[in-house]
Amino acid sequence: MLFLPYYFIFWFLLGLSTILVFCSSVWFTMWLGLEINMLSFVVLLISGESMRESEAGIKYFLVQVLGSILFLFGSLLMSFWGQASSYLFGMFYLFIVVAVALKLGMGPVHFWFPGVMDGIRWMNCGLLMTWQKLGPFCILAGLKLGFMSILMFFFSTLSGLIGGFGGLNQVSLRKLLAFSSIGHLGWLTGSLLVSDLIWRVYFLMYSFLSFFLVMLLMVYGWFYLGQVFNYGWKNNLKGLVVMLMFFSLGGLPPFGGFFMKWMVFSSLLINGMWLLAFILIGGSLMNLYYYLRVTYGLGMLSSETGYWGYLTEEGNSNVLVMLGILLGMFGMFFSSLLMFLIG
């Protein structure tokens, strides 16, 4: 385990490197920011005492190095020979987009993401699902040109499908959230194709919901579905909060996750991307299915009185209903406020 001062140094470098990528307009500076970000996060991953964390850190390091090599190779070739012909320009851009997709863990280059997620702590899971995606997406936002848009359409489609199908047979909550994150990568890439504003709102809402859910699971000490089933409704309000967060992340109305997915879905339809819109909706429905598996364990199994027993107790009904309404309306209000402030 790292000493506390060194731990904060690597946290600082993690944030600074992402800001460097965000503010840069030169390929080399972007690559340098990604490298600093990767090395800082690897140190945080292997700072634990578990062998699984060290294994996950090494796996993350190797994959990110491969992505960095592709990114540097494509950017250097484009700088020297990219102007020679449009064919070479497109091929070198292809290297960069594939490198960014590999760093993000998008389908079909997602092979490393669930395994790394399953071997690290919840706090690092939250960072890997949210903050670590910001830098590569800032690069991807500048590549929406002609052939690259078609390639991003391809990655978005596969990410939506893999994120839906991949989580159906998972019993590990960390792997389940990993495939959920892959599905949301499809939505984020689709939103990037139609509007930068919608992408920013979606990313902020997704980051808020994911990190808050990860913090809840870390506090409760849940890692597998069996732990959720054994928990039942021993503490009904805690279970309700987790259930509502899963519903919101899955896009169930009237929660905030539904509003952000509705923005992307309607924008895709307006721009004529019907196929992508309905593929993402199909993947989202599969996401909701395995979210319901988790919430079913909270609401029905291993409970002496069951969900409806708690609702009929005096005073509990008003608390549960009011909490559900407030969380749902807060999500919708928060999304609308973000649209207003960022726009």
Automatic annotation (TrEMBL):
<feature type="transmembrane region" description="Helical">
    <location>
        <begin position="6"/>
        <end position="28"/>
    </location>
</feature>
<feature type="transmembrane region" description="Helical">
    <location>
        <begin position="201"/>
        <end position="225"/>
    </location>
</feature>
<keyword id="KW-0249">Electron transport</keyword>
<feature type="domain" description="NADH:quinone oxidoreductase/Mrp antiporter transmembrane">
    <location>
        <begin position="26"/>
        <end position="284"/>
    </location>
</feature>
<keyword id="KW-0560">Oxidoreductase</keyword>
<protein>
    <recommendedName>
        <fullName>NADH-ubiquinone oxidoreductase chain 2</fullName>
        <ecNumber>7.1.1.2</ecNumber>
    </recommendedName>
</protein>
<feature type="transmembrane region" description="Helical">
    <location>
        <begin position="319"/>
        <end position="342"/>
    </location>
</feature>
<keyword id="KW-1133">Transmembrane helix</keyword>
<keyword id="KW-0813">Transport</keyword>
<dbReference type="Pfam" id="PF00361">
    <property type="entry name" value="Proton_antipo_M"/>
</dbReference>
<keyword id="KW-0520">NAD</keyword>
<dbReference type="GO" id="GO:0005743">
    <property type="term" value="C:mitochondrial inner membrane"/>
</dbReference>
<feature type="transmembrane region" description="Helical">
    <location>
        <begin position="272"/>
        <end position="292"/>
    </location>
</feature>
<dbReference type="InterPro" id="IPR003917">
    <property type="entry name" value="NADH_UbQ_OxRdtase_chain2"/>
</dbReference>
<comment type="function">
    <text>Core subunit of the mitochondrial membrane respiratory chain NADH dehydrogenase (Complex I) which catalyzes electron transfer from NADH through the respiratory chain, using ubiquinone as an electron acceptor. Essential for the catalytic activity and assembly of complex I.</text>
</comment>
<feature type="transmembrane region" description="Helical">
    <location>
        <begin position="134"/>
        <end position="156"/>
    </location>
</feature>
<comment type="function">
    <text>Core subunit of the mitochondrial membrane respiratory chain NADH dehydrogenase (Complex I) that is believed to belong to the minimal assembly required for catalysis. Complex I functions in the transfer of electrons from NADH to the respiratory chain. The immediate electron acceptor for the enzyme is believed to be ubiquinone.</text>
</comment>
<keyword id="KW-0679">Respiratory chain</keyword>
<dbReference type="InterPro" id="IPR050175">
    <property type="entry name" value="Complex_I_Subunit_2"/>
</dbReference>
<keyword id="KW-0830">Ubiquinone</keyword>
<feature type="transmembrane region" description="Helical">
    <location>
        <begin position="60"/>
        <end position="81"/>
    </location>
</feature>
<keyword id="KW-0812">Transmembrane</keyword>
<feature type="transmembrane region" description="Helical">
    <location>
        <begin position="237"/>
        <end position="260"/>
    </location>
</feature>
<feature type="transmembrane region" description="Helical">
    <location>
        <begin position="87"/>
        <end position="113"/>
    </location>
</feature>
<feature type="transmembrane region" description="Helical">
    <location>
        <begin position="176"/>
        <end position="194"/>
    </location>
</feature>
<dbReference type="InterPro" id="IPR001750">
    <property type="entry name" value="ND/Mrp_TM"/>
</dbReference>
<keyword id="KW-1278">Translocase</keyword>
<dbReference type="GO" id="GO:0016491">
    <property type="term" value="F:oxidoreductase activity"/>
</dbReference>
<keyword id="KW-0496">Mitochondrion</keyword>
<keyword id="KW-0472">Membrane</keyword>
<dbReference type="GO" id="GO:0008137">
    <property type="term" value="F:NADH dehydrogenase (ubiquinone) activity"/>
</dbReference>
<keyword id="KW-0999">Mitochondrion inner membrane</keyword>
<dbReference type="GO" id="GO:0006120">
    <property type="term" value="P:mitochondrial electron transport, NADH to ubiquinone"/>
</dbReference>
<comment type="similarity">
    <text>Belongs to the complex I subunit 2 family.</text>
</comment>
